[in-house]
Amino acid sequence: MVDLQATSLTVQRRLDAVMAALDAADTDRAIVLADEALQAGIDHPLLLNLSAFALEREGRLDEALDRLMRALELSPNDVLILTSIGATLSQQGKDRQALIYFDGAATIHPGHAPAHNGRGTCLLVLGELDEGRRAFLRAADLDPRYPDPLGALADLALRKDDGSTARLLAERALALDAGQASAVMVMAKLDAKAGDHAIAAQRLTALLDKTISPLHRAAAQQLLADELEMLDRPVEAFALYTQANQLVREIHSPLYSRPDVEIGIQLAERLQAAMDASTAGDWSPAAGVATPPCKGHVFLVGFVRSGTTLLEQVLASHPDVVALEEQATLRALTPAYFSDDEGLERLKHLDAEEADRLRADYWARVSSFGVDPTDKVFVDKAPLSSLWLPMVAKLFPDAKVLFAVRDPRDVVVSSFRHRFQINALAWAFTDLVATAQFYRAVMDLVDRYRKKLGLTLYQHKHEDIVLDFDGEVGRICDFLGIAQSEGMRDFAETAKRRDVRTPSAEQVRRGLFTEGMGRWRRYGDETAAMLPILRPWVERFGYAPDVASEAS
Questions:
Q1: CA 209 to chain centre
Q2: Which one of 44, 143, 157, 239 is CB 3.0 to 4.6 Å from 166, fit for a cystine?
Q3: Of 129, 103, 128, 140, which Cα lies nearest the Cα of 118?
Q4: Number of domains in the chain
Q5: Residue 492: CB partners within 8 Å, gap ≥ 6?
Q6: Distance CA 387, CA 426 (A)
Q7: What kind and span of H or E run contains 459?
Q8: Which of 436, 337, 356, 453 is nearest to 401 (CA)?
Q9: Do the domain assignments include residue 449?
Q10: pLDDT (tens digit, 9 = 90+) per residue, 341-389?
Q11: How far is 189 from 295, CA to CA, in rounded Å?
C-alpha cells in the first residue's frame, strides 16, 4: 500500500528545494532539481516550466513547448506558464499564436509586466510598431527594475535614429542586467555609428559568450559579422553570417520545412508553369472603374536588396510624388488568387464587381497607412510584389512598373547577410544557395510576366543611379511623366525625416556610395556555389562575368 502522506512530503521537499534555489537566484540549480523531480515522476507546473526554460535555452523549442502545454493543463490560469508559452512560440516565429497567450496572461493579471513585454515583441514582428512600443512602455511602468522592455525601447529609439535616447535606455537596462541582449546590441550599434568597430565587436563577442536565447544569438552573430566586415575581416564575417542563418533556419525549420507549406521558390515555379499555360488574353484588364484617385500610379518592384529603398527615397523627394514603403497593400489582396491554381483561374476571369471591390480595398489600405495620393504620383514600393504583377495587370492597367535590378551576385549575398522577418518568402534567405535559387526563380517568372501581362515597365539599374544620378533620375522622371526636380538630390535628408524600416535605411541616409558594388567578390570561395545559378541573369543584365566564367 502506497504511503500517501510520505509521498506528499517527498513532493513538497523537492518543491521547497526548487523554490529555495530560485529565491537564491540560482536558476541553474533550480533547473537541475526540477529535472530530477520530473524524472522521479512528479508532474508539477513549476517543474515543467523550469525544464521548458532550460530546453528553450538549448534551442529545443518543440520539446519546451510540449512541457509548457502539459503545465498549462495542470494550471490553466497560471500567467507565468501562459507567458512562457508565448515566449516559446515567439522564438519559433509563431507571433500571432504567441500574442494570444500573452494577451491571455495580461487579461488574467494586467499587472504582469512580462506579458506586456511579450506582447510588445510580437507586435513589433507583426509590424505594429506604435502598439508594440506602448506595450513595452506599459511593462517598464509596471516594473521599473525589469530590463527587457528597456532594451526593446532602446532598440526602437535607435530605429528612429534617436541615439541619445537609445543610449540612455540601454544604459538603464544594462545597469539592471549587464547581459541584457537587446541593450548590448544597441550599445554595439551606437559604437559602430561612432566608428568604434573594434569596441562594438568586443561587446558582441562578450555577449555571445553568455547564455542568451537562440534568436538573440543569431542577431548578435549577424551584428558581429557586420563589425568584422568593417574591420576588413570578410572571411570571418561570412562564417558568422552563415552560423546566424543556420541557427535561424533550425529554429524555423519545423514550420517552413513542412510539405504543406509553399515556400518562395516553389511559389515562383508554380506561377511560372501557370504563365506558360496561359495566353496574353487571359490577363487583359478586368472591367470596372480602374481610374485611380491620383495623378499617377507606380509599383516599384524587383527583388530585396536591389536598391528599391534608395530609389523610393529619391522619388519621395519630388514635390509631386508620395511614396509608401513596403506595406501590405497589393499583397493583402493576393491570398485568394495566388495560393493555388484554382485561385489564378478566378483571377483570370474577374468580373467588374469583384474587380471594383478589390480596387476599393487596395485604396482603402493605402489610406489606412496615412497616405493621401490625391493629385500626386503615388509610388507603392514592395520589392517582392514582382510576384503579384498579374494582379496589377488585372486591376490597374494604367499603372506603371519600375523594375529595379542590381548585380545578381551582390543582391544574393546582401540578402543572405541581412536579417529579415522570416516568412515563407524570406525563408530562402537563410541559405545562400536557396537565396540564389529564389532570385533566379523570381527573375524567370518576371520574364514570363513581361511577355504575357502587357505591363508598362521601366527596368532601372541600381548602379546607374549611383554612377550617373542625374541621367538615370531624368530617365525615370520621363517614364513617370514628371519633370526632374532639384530636390531629388536631397534624398538622404528625406530618408532621415521618413520612417524607413527596411535593412537599407542606414545606407540610404548616407547618400550615394559605391562600396556595395561588386562586394560579393570579397568572400572568395564562399560564394562559389551561387555563381552558376546566377550566371544567366548576370549575363542578361549585362554585368561583368565572374571569375569562373572568365576561365571557362
A1: 26
A2: 157
A3: 103
A4: 1
A5: 313, 508, 509, 510, 511
A6: 13
A7: strand 456-461
A8: 453
A9: yes
A10: 999 999 999 999 999 999 999 999 999 999 999 999 999 999 999 999 9
A11: 41
Q: How many CB atoms lie within 10 A of CB 284?
A: 14
Write the pLDDT tens digit of every residue in 2-33.
Answer: 343 445 667 788 888 888 988 888 888 989 99
Element (H, E) at 362: helix 352-368
- Assess if residue 415 is contained within a domain: yes
Whether 96 is in a domain gets the answer no
Q: What is the pTM of this model?
A: 0.86
pLDDT of residue 505: 47
What's the angle, vertex CA 117, arms to CA 35 and CA 128, rounded to 5?
130
Can you name the residues that pair with 404 across neighbouring β-strands? Answer: 460
Length of the chain (residues): 552
Whole-angstrom distance, CA of residue 217 vs CA of residue 209: 10
Give the burial class of 238: count Cβ atoms within 10 A of its Cβ; 0-12 exposed, 13-18 middle, 19 or more buried.
Answer: buried
Residue matched to cell numbers 537596462: 173
Domain that holds residue 317: 264-551
Q: Which residues of 40-78 are buried (b: 16+ CB within 10 A; e: fewer)?
A: eebebbbbbbbbbbbbbeebebebbbebbeebbeebeeb
CATH number at residue 269: 3.40.50.300
One-letter-per-residue 3-state SS of 157-216: HHHCCCHHHHHHHHHHHHHHCCCCHHHHHHHHHHHHHCCCHHHHHHHHHHHHCCCCCHHH
Grid cell at residue 47:
517543474
- Which cell is 294 given? 491620383
Q: Which residues make beta-bridge pairs with 379?
A: 298, 323
Helix (H, G, I), strand (E, B) or coil at 351: coil
Of residues 325, 308, 314, the one with CA closest to residue 127: 325
**Residues 460, 478 contacting (CB under 8 angstroms):** no
Q: Which residue reads 535593412 in cell numbers?
A: 503
pLDDT digits (tens, 9 = 90+) for 424-471: 999 999 999 999 999 999 999 999 999 999 999 999 999 999 999 999
Distance CA 544, CA 528 (A): 16
330 located within any domain:
yes
Q: Which of 52, 43, 54, 53 is nearest to 11 (CA)?
A: 43
- Residue partners of 298: CB distance under 8 A and separation at least 6: 315, 377, 378, 379, 380, 399, 400, 401, 402, 480
By the 8 A CB rule, do 505 and 411 touch?
no
Element (H, E) at 456: strand 456-461
